[in-house]
Structure formats: C-alpha cells, structure tokens
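[job 4417] fold queue: 2 targets
>>> target A
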Amino acid sequence: MLSNLLKPILLTLLLASLAMAQEAPSNVVVSYSFDDDNVATGPDTFRVFNFAKGNVNLTTTYCHSGYRSVELRDVAGDKAFPELQGYFPLRQKGQLLVHFAFMTTSPNEPLNMALAGPQWFTVRKDGIGFWLSTEAGFLYQHSDKQIKKLIPLEPFEWYTVDVTYHIDEGTYDLTISGEDKKRPSLISLIKQKNASGIAGSAVDKFSFIGDLEDKSNVTYYVDDVVVSIDQLIKQKPFIAPGRRKLFVDRWNDYYKGMLQHPNVIPAIDLSDFGLHADELQSFKREGLLKALEGVLNRLPFDSALLTNASPNSVRLLHAISLWMLGNEQLARRQSEVALENFEEAARQAPEGKIYQLSSVLALAALERWAEVDARIPLLYADWHNDVRFAIASAMIGIAKRNLSEAENWLREPAELISTQLENPILRRLWSDQINDALIADLKKIYPLNWRQYIEDWLVCEQYYFVLLWQRSFALAQQYASRMVERHKKLGLPTWLWKERAGDAAFHAKSYSEAHRLYEESMKENVNNTSVLLKLSDVYFLFGDLEKEQIYREKVYGTLRTN
C-alpha cells in the first residue's frame, strides 16, 4: 500500500528532475563517459543488443577516464553479435565532430565501429558514413567502398579517435592518438571519402559491434563518446527515461509524417504504366521482359543497351524508370526533382495514368495548391472507380490540414470492407502478409476483381489515422474495435487493431483502457515491440517506474555493471 502511495510522488519527482535537466543551447548532442548511473536506454540515448552469448556491460576493470567504460565481448558462432548503438538528431548538412576512445584485448580479433544514417548500416547514401574495423592486428578504414590499412594495434592500449565528418562534401578528417603523450598522433588524415564515396550522406547514429561474420571472440572497451555539431541547438528535454517523446506519440508522429507528406500511390498493375497485351507482347518479342523486371526493381536504365528494342518500347521503359526514380525522390522529400521526373514520364507515356496522379501528389508536397486543384478534375475519368484515387485525395486533404475532407473521401470505402474472405489468399492479405507473391496469386485467382481486394486493404489504415488526427478518439477506437470484430469473425489475427484501439484510448487519456487493449494485443503477438514500448509509456504514466523500465528494456536493452 505504501509503495502505491509513493509511486505518484516518485513520478512527480522524476518529471521535475527531467524538466530541470533541460540543457541550454549547445553544440554537443551526445556525451557519455559511462560514469553516470542514470543513463537509460531508449530511442534518444542508445540501444544495447545483448541477446548473444557475448554481452555489452559497464565495467570498472578498464577505463579511459573516470572509473567506468563499456565492455563488448563477442563469441564466435553464436549467430549474433553484441552492439552498443547510439542515437543523435539527424544531421543532413554541415560538420559533425566525433570523439571516442577504444581498447582491444586481442588485436587479431575483428571488431567494427561506425557512424551511419537513416539507411542504417549499408554502404549507400545515408547509410554508413564513417567505418573503422580491425583484422589481423591492424586497424582499417572503409573509404570510398575500399578498405585501407591504417595502423597496427597493441593489446590493452587505449586509442583516441577524433573524426570531423563533412556531410556536404562526403569526406572526413581523421586523427588517432595512442597513450604515448610524446607522439601527438599515430595517424592524421584529411579529406578521406566517406564509406560509400557519396556526398551529402546524412548521419544520426553510432555503433560499436564485434564482427559481421560471426567469427570473432573479441573483447574490447569503449569510453568517452562525444558527438558535437557546428552550430548551437537546443534539444527537447527528456520527458521519460530514455526518450524526449512518449513512444505512443513517436509512433503516431511517424505515421503522420509518412502520410502528411504526399507519397506515391503504388502501381498494382502494368496497365498503370500504359502496358497492355500488345505492349507486353512486343516486350516479349524484343527480349525486354528482363529489362522491364530490372526497371521495376530500380536497376539503372540505359537505352543504349537495348539494341533490339523498338522506339516505343524504349519510351515506355524510360517512363517507368523515371517514375521509379521520382518515387525515391518524393519519399526523400525531394519533391521538386520528383515532380520533374513524373512530368517527363507523363510526357513520354501519356497513356500511363499513374504518372499524372504522381505529379499531382508531388505538387501537393510542394503545396502548389492552385495547380493541384486545377489538375484533380482532369484525373477523374481514369481514376474515379479506383480506391487509390480516394487514398490520394485523402493524402492531399491531410497535406492541406483539411482532415474532414480526407475523412469524407475515406469513410465509405473504409466501412465497406469485404467480409467474404473464403479463400486463403484473401486471408493472407488481411493478415498483413502482402507482398509480390501474394499479388501474383490474387491476379491468378481473381483476374477481374483482384485490385478491389487490395484497395479495400489499403484504405483502412488511412481512415483510422485521419480519425485519430482529427482528435476523434472515440470514433477512432470504435472503428478499430469494429475491425477487431471483423477479423475475429473471419478467424484473422486481431492484435494490430487491438493495438490501434489502445492508441486511440491512450490519446483520449483513458490509460487504463489503453493498458487493457495493449495487454490483449500482446497476448496474441508477444513479439510486437511497439506494444511493449507503449506499455512502458502506460506504466510511466501510472507512476510504476519499475515496470516502465522492464518493458522499455525488453526492446532497448540494459546497460549495467557486470
């Protein structure tokens, strides 16, 4: 009883301490000496991957400064690797300065240390920006898609790394120092190309791991991680352990950001590109089916290689290639160049109805509303029987902040979802298993109305979110509950719509109801990380900081002294 009385007091004190911890504007975005006891894992601090035989722990055995460091211990053959992965605000331009110290007990064992961006740890734009690794006793850098030897490493010696990462130029300056104070640096390099060799690669995370091939038995230590930028910024305060925003709000903002910025409506049939039986027969006769497959899989298009292609086929392929490129650009918020590519695709293949609609969505992303309003009526003849037009219109309404208009477009199709799912293929669709193989199966079994089934599936999420963003929380929860009942009657999984009903209850501040719905969702899908994190939010608001930590650390891991 006493502990229950103390929980609200403890929560109040924690909230007060978090508020007091608001920092003045600073150019330092990350600073960890690992001597503090109150650094919680989370989306705004770091994540610990500790699921292998190896581990990531705090230790007092070795340190570069203070009295603690992080120990990473890998075990070969355990099918995983330990990792300390840290986060900071996305940087897309300017300079980033990174400082850290590391020490390995076995220089012959491989390890990896990297900076990366939204494309995670891939060697591509916005992927890995800076990458160091070790092998056979040497430290290597990964620059311009090449691996270059730097210096030999000694066991049990601390090395200090300083990196100035020039985002716009796609280069970095690197200085590495050892423990010998008489030598200012072991290596000093300037204007090294980043890992991918691509300028403008953004970064928002750092990572320390073992090896990628599961052959390493390395044990190494990391300390004094500092990331700073070339301008003063004021970061939002932490409002709960490990996060500057509640997990429920983070998920909601993710979907809102995804839908508020008009995105490309998916093509679900080759006729969307103006390809019909005659065109496909020509492609087959000219040996272009593989070229078509390549373009649809975002491979580079080069008309010079299509020696046997007719001008008409080249024109159609080029239009698809431009549209695919525009998709990527619009998704990256590069709306101006996306519009140019959509417009050129429409000029080259005016019979492809998806190109004009994509142009309108790019114009909406640019908030050129007069042009949007002028073009929409011209699309109606080709699109009025296609629910994707309702989805596109809703996107435009959301972008205009006209949520009532978006709801009007979505309400009827969202409420007329088919309940006749007699075929296992349809059950796969409504179990959120949509992929290329499923679409192919749908076309085979339902050649006349397969598109309608996909369109039904597409519209439901958007309608729910529009209700949520209008703050019609009760209506959003009621709609999610109806979807639960529909799924239940059809023997389909209900956990996702239970979670969404819980989100609506959470936003309505019905936290006990949200807790009940999240628990029901988790019983059906115990591996759903989003529900675990939302339960962490609920327990935080209940004042139960022990359970808040338990559920948060199920996803973000734990960093404790071994």
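>>> target B
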Amino acid sequence: MNNIKIENKNLKNKIINNDNNIIEIKNEINNLKEIINKNEEEKNKLEEEIKNKNNEIKEIMNKRYNELNDIINNNKNNQNEEFNNKLLNKENEIKRFNEKENKINEQINNKINEINNKNEERINEIKNKIENIINDINNKIDNNKINYNINNKYNELKEQINYNINKMGNYKYKTEPQNLKFKFDITKTNTSYGVNDIFEIFICYKDNKEYIISPNINNYNLDIFNLLDNKKILSLEGHKNNINTIRYFINKNNNINEYLISGDRSYIVIIWDITNNYNIKYKIDTKYKSDIYSCLLIFPHNNNDNYIITSTRNTSDDNDESATKIYSLNNGQFIKYINNTNKYTIFYLLSWYNKKNNKYYIIQLAYNKIIINNLLEDELYSELIQQPEHYHYSGFIYNRNNNDYLCSSSKNGYINIWDLYNKNIFKTINTNNCHLMHIIEWNNKYIIVADYNNKSFKIIDLDENKIISNFGGQHTGNVICIKKIYHPIYGESLLSCGNDKCIKFWNI
C-alpha cells in the first residue's frame, strides 16, 4: 500500500510538472500573439507607406499630366519631334512608377505571407506539443491505474505465497505442542534409511492445495497425496533406486516457480518442475560413490543464476568425489566443488542469506563440525566445532532480535544454538545422550526433535533450556523425520515418519 501511495504521489508530481509545461506553452502562445500583433502593425505600416507612395505617384502623375496638357494646349498647332519625345518620356516615367508600385506591393504581400506561414507553423507546433503533453498525461494516468492493479495483484499473490509457506512450517504456531495427540496413519513409504527429509509436505501455489509426497512402498516412484483426504493424485516416475531425500522449494524472486528435488542411492538427483505439471527439469548423475544424503535449491535475489546443491556420505575410496557439489539450475551444468580436499559426510544442507554483507552461504551439517561456505566465492566463512565431536544430523535457521541463529541436533543428544554472525555457540541443551534426528521450530518458545532410538519426540522449551515433554508410542521403528503443517481441517499439526515405513499424523 505504501508503494502505491508513493506511486500516486509521483504521478501527481508529474501531472503538476505537465501543468507547468502547459502554462509555459500558454505563455509562448501569448508571446506569439504579441509577435503576430507586431507583424500586423508592420503590415499596416507598409500598407500606409504604399498608400503614401501611391498618393505621391498620383500627385506626380497629375502634375505631369497637367504639364502635358499645358504643353499640348500650347502646341496644338505646332506638334513636332521634340513634343513627341517628351510625351514618350512622360509615358515611360509613368510606366516605371507603376512597375515600382507593383513591385512594392508584391514585396509587401510576400512578407505578409511569410509572416502568416511562420505564425501558422508555430501555432501548429504548439498545438502538437500541447496535444502530446495531454496524451502523455493521460497515458501516465492509465499506466498508473494498470500499475495500481498490477501492484494489488502482486501483493495478493505475495500474501498468498507467504501464507502458504507459513502454513508449511515458517509460521509461528500458537498452540502448545505438548498437547499433540496421534490422529491417524496417512500412508506407507518405501524407506528404512536413517536420513532426514524422507518425505515432504508442501502447498502447491498453482491450486492452493496441501500435499504430501513420499516414496512408493512397492517401487521407486514418488507418490503425491492430497492431504485433505489422503488420496493419491499422482505418481512421479524417474528414479531407479531407493529415494533418500525429498525437499520442496519455491522461487519468489521473479515469476513464481515451484520445484521438488529428490536424491536416491544410485547417486541420481532429479529436479521436478511443479509449475510445469511436475515434469523432470533435470536428471543429474552426481557421480558420487555413496548415497545422496541431502540436496538443496538456492534462489539468490542478487544473482541471475539459481543453484542446485548436493551432498553425500564420505567413503574410503580415494577416487570418491564426496565433496558437496554445486550445479546451475538454469542449465543443469556442474559449477564447482566445495571442500573437495577434505572429505566429510554431509548429513544436511541449509542455505543462509547474510544480510550484513549481502552474500549467500551453504551450511553443511557434517560428522564432526558445521561448515559454512560462500555460495559463489571461494570463501570459508566458518567451521563451527563443539567438543566432544559428534554427528550433526539436522538443523534450521531462525531470527531473534535482528540476529540469525542456527539450531542443530546431534547423535549424542546435544541441541546447539549457534550465533551465525559471531560464529560461536549461543546456548546448548543436553538431552542426556539421546540420538536426535530431525529438528523443527514450533514457535519462538518451543522446538520439537525426533528421538531416534526411543521412537518418540522431545519438546524443548527454549526459554527454560530443557525438555518439557516426551510423546510418541505409535511408531514401531526409529523416528527419523518430522514436519509441521497447517492442515486444511485440523489446523496446526505434525507429521512423522520412521524406519517402520509409516507416516503418521498428529494434532492438538
């Protein structure tokens, strides 16, 4: 709305400027009228001069005529050659006066026509200029109306996108998570592998419906279910091996584009273009020697390219390209390695935009450290290390008081909150050697983390830095992945999955 007000104000200023231009043109017209009046005076003066000349000529002619009559009268009986010559001279003199009169009249008429033509051209020029200014003003008024409508539509779309993204997880839920109860099973999924993002939930911008996507129990397809009725609406074919990770991303920078990215045990990453009917945009052979653990899409607002990031588990093979890799989302081509000289198992990938230096970073949660690299430059921003060393399995970024923090979970039971600007630990919460997996933010006060070995969930109070609740009891296998979403019927809800291959729905 502020942008619209500013645009309207700018338009008013432009109209005022155009009004000033019209006033200036009116002044020019008045000046032109003065010139025309002056020319009219000059014309009248010339006409008066002609009149005087004519009178003078007539007077001379009358005088000569009288002289001639006198001569004729005096020489009626004595006409001779001298008389005839004088008469001829007088006639020639009269003829010269007539020619001079005609020439002066012609010059005056030409001058008057020249002045009239110039005046007419100037008047037409001013008329055209005024007409162009008026048309320009009208066009700007029409364009402003169009821009106003476009801005309104854009703001509506932006609000809808933000609303959808918030419902998928960024929204700070208002309910108390310790009141979550098991509601029902959604589906079986073909996974038993202990990595994050083994299923995904998203709200499709195209139809504003909520979906869950997970590997098919009997094959290597990705099945998409409508979360409203849990009915399968689509099956995506492309993978030839078990799928380890699935994530949803939306590009809001220019045109709205939605993608799914999935990675399997054959080292293949597929980018699915949701906007284009879930068609495969790229199918990339990463040439890893081990399973793909995590993948990521980044859409920098300050760069024309968008990026695909992949990671894998470290192996003992010296020829293994186990480094994190960056590809272009614009053409699918490989760009560069990250950490290709140091082999780490990267369990989870996050992106972070540093508002202080206007740069994008890749956060890699690894076996014994958290590595933060510049996306576009060869810069190691930081290596976050805590003693004793432990696996960093999952994490999320949040903002408090204009500062960015990374919250990470670990295999030895520690939840660490890192200050990303100061590059140190802000606080640590110990869950007493629990094997912690996927971690999410419920709101500013609570986080929920999957307790792998105990087949349950822990709710952490960030203000009190302690566990306030344990719940579960429905999974028969280790709990791996949890997601939160605003369900179209049940509201603020939680979904979970374990290596028992069941996706379960929890609600307050």
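[job 4417] complete. Note on B: The mean pLDDT is 81.
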